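Minutes, project check-in
Item: structure for the 93-residue chain
Input as provided by the requester:
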Amino acid sequence: MTNPKIEKVKTEIEKTKAKIAEYQAKLRGLERQKTEFENEQIVALVRSEKISDAELTALMKSLRKEETPAAPLDSVSKQTEQEETLNAKTDEN
């Protein structure tokens, strides 16, 4: 003897899970499509600039070097050192 209310809720749960799975699949497809369109746009942009493979490689390498966080961290630590020195001098006076 099963409770009809429980069975109704179980049915709704299964329907909802099926819809979620359907939407997740749709979302993955849309994300894949978006990435493809972005890649096509990038390729078109690079081709419109008419740069050689060697120039593109050099550009990409230089951009990767700029991404390293060492430079900003160094400047922050130098600024902190300068502030500490100024504070120390101020405290002495």
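Outcome recorded: The CA atoms of residues 35 and 41 lie 10 Å apart.
No further action items on this chain.
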